Amino acid sequence: MNINNKKLEICFAIHIDYNYTDILSGNDYEEIYKHLFANLYATPNIPFSLVLNGCFFDWAQQEKSPFLDVISEMVARKQIEILGNAYYEPFISTIPSSDLTSQIEYMTDAIRKHFKKHKRPRGLYLPYFAWNPSSIHILKKSGIEYCLLDTRYFDKAGLESLSPVCMEDSGKTIFGVPATCEFENMDASPRAFYDILRTYTSKNTENTVVFFLSPETATQLLEKTEENMSWMEEFFELSNSEESFVSVHNSSNFLKPQTIYQKGFLDSNGVFANQTINSSVKQLLVRKKHIYGMYAKMNYVHTIVKQIRGDKSRRKTAFLDLWHAEQGVLFNLDSKYEKYNRKLRQICYRNLLLAENQSRIPGDFVNSLSTLDFDLDGLTEYISQTNNINMYVHSLGAKVFELDVFNDYRNYADIASDDTGLFIDHLITADKLEAIKEGDFSSATSQAVFSNNLYQNLKINKFDLIMKTDSSFRTYNQALSLKKHYSFTPKGCSVQYIVKNASDFNLSAYFMVEIDIALAFENKNEANFVVFSNEKKLEASFDNNQFEALSWAQFSEPRGKSLFTIESNEPTNLIILPIYEQSPDAENPIVGVRSLFYWKIDIEPKRDSEKMLFFNIEPQKPKKRRK
Q1: 557 by DSSP, 3-state: which?
Q2: What is the number of other CB atoms lying within 10 angstroms of the CB of residue 377?
Q3: Which of 153, 188, 471, 580 has the smallest count of CB within 10 Å of its CB?
Q4: Left if phi > 0, otherwise alpha if psi is -120 to 50, otherwise beta: which for 460?
Q5: Residues 557, 448 within the same domain
Q6: How is residue 620 annotated by DSSP?
Q7: pLDDT-derived band of residue 6, with 50, 70 and 90 as boundaries?
Q8: 3-class DSSP assignment, residue 136
Q9: Which helix H or strand E contains 571, and what residues bound it?
Q10: Cβ atoms of residues 94 and 281 within 8 Å
Q11: What pLDDT score was predicted for residue 5?
């Protein structure tokens, strides 16, 4: 075979993307990998490039899998090339540069530890081809010489789509190598695929492209019988013929020394659901408020973990937990695993809280109430932190938008909706209250009186936060104000409300406090709560959901670890509603409980009315199983 006559150099690559979705789906990926590596091992003459991630390494070591040994043998005989990767496959534009550098180095160490004869990887795989040109100098610092990028990025930039491009940022250069998942699930015959490749060739330049195959497809293409060669062997035979225009290599052989390649600039981009987004991944995060909240939490936890000093073991553990949370798949931006949305977010928050908890050194940590632009929106948020609970209060609506419980490492305010939270304030008329009782909550509260207001901070100290807003009620703009006093405790908080009628007319309405808790149930019948109403302890559910003269209510999940108790300083009324997952494919459609505590208020001009709620969280004792 005369390589100099070849006009198209290709590489077959496989992404071993074992991750949390595989665990949640219960797919037997061990069996898939078993067949894949067996077939690869049986065809030593066909080169392949592999992309491994940290979850695969962790799983293989924990299960004492022989896969790493098999890969090591294929590396030793120069059949397999391992591409570089950030260990837990984050989006490179969404994590701090120090985390990106550390994760690339951690992967490099893992590759060199398990595959002794493998050199330091020069190429880098990007999950979802999520590219950001501002990361070039960081990647170069990590020893990366080229990245695999979707061929469509080259077309968009007006470049040769099948020729490497030399890119620059801050005086550092890196190469982009064309790649595609177009044939990830290929079903064409070897000859048909060979003919298709003719369309990839150019008369003027040599062409280069990496074809990604799914593990399942690669397994099928490598499968052979006693009578027949495998698909891959047939194709390799075609490419090795004298008249062939194709040669098959590892991607590291694409970039030739002393060769001038095209220069260009590729904008930020990514590929989700096989479509280029033509923007930065961060732009997708901003569009989904609950996802952007995860991103903000990641940045916050990185800041506090970085401050751990003295205890190297604690610091390393904290960073590993943080890196787990940075995985791109947890954001589910391609909506491929919509039914697992809630569980993926729970996994992210669990790892973030595990990392944050490492920073809380016993004896040094003290309860506090501080200010910070936590969610990166230009406004001040208020962060209450105790040993077991975080409560974050937003200036918009003065609501609790994050509720972290370290007893089970969950954010109980994490509900995929923009209009949820704890201690959301409403003022409604009698007809709106009746609509809510019928289940029509959204339209009944659409004309917000307090919940969309920016609250002014009147006072803040170690445990107390007092906020106030002015507003108007009804079409004739009846002036009123609401003062809200949070007092934070190790078990939760109390909230005092003072509603003032600033107008010259009597105010007659219903004051309602909304408390949304992210409790999930497989069905409505599984939700059973306890209330104390009319001097009686009663069971509540989504069907038996309206109570008067209520003293307290308790909410929990059947298998949950936390018990939520809400009390009032005077008899109140309660409506309980389910909150449904926005995705129609959700595994468990009910993702939260909306509890609405309300009072009838009649306030004379220039007078006020006080209401108060106490919110406590305690560990839930395991329920005895029925025999």
Answers
A1: coil
A2: 14
A3: 188
A4: beta
A5: yes
A6: P
A7: low
A8: helix
A9: strand 562-580
A10: yes
A11: 55
| Burial of residue 548 (number of CB atoms within 10 Å: 0-12, 13-18, 19+) | exposed
- The CATH number of whichever domain residue 545 belongs to comes to 2.70.98.10
Place of tokens 């065809």: 43
Total length of the chain: 627
**Residues 292 and 329 reside in one and the same domain:** yes
Phi, psi of 37 (to 5 degrees): -70, -30
Residue percentage of the chain with pLDDT more than 90:
80
Q: Tens digits of per-residue pLDDT, 459-513?
A: 999 999 999 999 999 877 899 999 999 999 999 999 999 999 999 999 999 999 9
pLDDT at residue 626 is higher than 60: no
Using alpha carbons, list the distances in angstroms from residue 426 to 20, 64, 420: 39, 57, 13
pLDDT digits (tens, 9 = 90+) for 593-605: 999 999 999 999 9
Residue (of 103, 151, 99, 158) closest to 129 by Cα position: 151
Q: Which tens digits make up the pLDDT trace of 250-295?
A: 998 898 887 889 999 999 999 998 999 999 999 999 998 889 999 9
Among 7-21, 47-61, 582-596, which is the least confidently predicted range?
582-596
Under DSSP, the state recorded for 17 is -
Burial zone of 325 (CB within 10 Å; 0-12 exposed, 13-18 middle, 19+ buried): buried
Tokens 């408020």 belong to residue: 289
Domain tally, the chain: 3
Cα–Cα dist 263/515, whole Å = 56
Domain range holding 483? Answer: 426-619
Helix (H, G, I), strand (E, B) or coil at 104: helix
> Is the pLDDT at 61 greater than 90, yes or no?
yes
Question: What is the distance between the alpha carbons of residues 279 and 276, in angstroms, rounded to a whole number?
Answer: 8
Pull the structure tokens for residue 270. 């990514």
- The DSSP H or E segment spanning 513 is strand 507-517
Q: Is residue 402 part of a domain?
A: yes
| Same domain flag for 211 and 299 | no
Structure tokens at 135: 């990361």
Q: pLDDT at position 580, please? A: 87
CA distance 455 to 458: 9
Give per-residue pLDDT as tens, 102-127.
999 999 999 999 998 888 999 999 99
Q: What is the largest CA-CA distance in the chain?
A: 97
Q: Are 231 and 312 found together in one domain? A: no
Residues 42, 380: Cα–Cα separation, whole Å = 61
621 Cβ contact list (under 8 Å, min separation 6): none
Whether residues 127 and 274 fall in one domain: yes
Question: Is residue 510 within 8 Å of 501, Cβ to Cβ?
Answer: no
Q: Do 251 and 286 share a structural domain?
A: no
pLDDT at residue 395 greater than cutoff 90 = yes
pLDDT of the residue at 382: 98
Question: CA–CA separation, 190 vs 175, rounded Å?
Answer: 30
Q: Cα dihedral sign for 289, 295, 301, 303?
A: negative
pLDDT higher than 90, residue 417: no
CATH classification at residue 164: 3.20.110.20
Q: What is the pLDDT of residue 506?
A: 94
Which pair of structure tokens corresponds to residue 405? 């419980």
